[in-house]
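Long-time lurker. I teach an intro course on protein structure, and each term I like to show students one example going from raw sequence to a predicted 3D structure in token notation. This year I'd like something fresh instead of my usual example. Would anyone be willing to generate the tokens for the chain below so I can use it in lecture? Attribution to the forum is fine with me.
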Amino acid sequence: MQFCKLMHQKFYPFIAFLFICFLGSSCLKKEQPLPLPPPGDAESQLVNIGNDYATQVFYSFTNGIVKSDSFDIWDIAFDVHPDQNELWLNGGSNIMVYPSGQSDFNLPMPSLTNKQWMYDKPEGTYGLSALGALTPESHIGELLFLQKGSQTFKLKILEATSDHYKIEVGGVNDASGIMVVLQKEEQYNFVYYSFSNGIVQPEPVKTDWDFVFTRYRTIFPGLNADGSDMPYIVNGVLLNTFKTLGASDSTKEFNFAEFDLAASSQFTLSPNRDIIGYNWKAVNINTAEYTVLPKRMFLLKDQLNQLWKFHFVSFYDENGQRGNPRFEFKRLE
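-- Reply from a regular --
Happy to contribute to a lecture. Here you go:
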């Protein structure tokens, strides 16, 4: 198995069909939507995530690079869907959570083993966070400990409603914390919080992007010496969770130029955030040099129901600087 180690470490836009012709006694004629232009030639894009992979880049096949910022600008995130209350962790910062089972904010930090700390599943779909869906019976009102490197924080989710979260957050030794209200804003996927900077919003409007290059945490099942799962920080691609699907097939090799719509039927589209992931490249553990796998094909169906093929062709720029993945893409339908 080859994988990439870091240092230390899916609303269609609403298309309105207008009824504008009033004929005779209020009879309406339906206007036909304009068809999409035919797929054009393949395009190439380079994104800079930095030598240290500290920059995350949000990308859209239609809009290009939408936004760039630091991957660690946030620590925790909350789902903004009115019917989905869930807490997510910044896996790229190796944040983990321990549910204490107690409600007293003044509870001292218990002595914990590595196995007691919990983390999200990399698929990133609803219910697969470390704690799962938040309900009055499950984790709301419970004191949570969160570990980020050498720092530990306390968190209580006091309320989780259709339009906001109310939390109490503080340091590991604090007897009480500060109260913060995080409003659910429907134009985004999540509302984010930083232990250092409070409420932040690293994510662009959810209808503006397809995927993000970022650090995240994957899991290698049973890879630890004791047979337990190994969480591991990688750098790769995560899908937009809003009406975006992806597909990959790591068992076959394809010619990008010859890959067509008929060939895409071999793939199964998935909402899993990590379906593109990191294994479009391999690393030589002795030299820390990366090799991109250009015959590994990926598909993405965006919010406009457009299907794209893409593959990666390099991880270095023209000056040999790593952290500059380049990919080719073309719309299939």
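Some talking points for your students: Residues 36-71+206-331 form one domain. The two ends are 34 Å apart (CA to CA).
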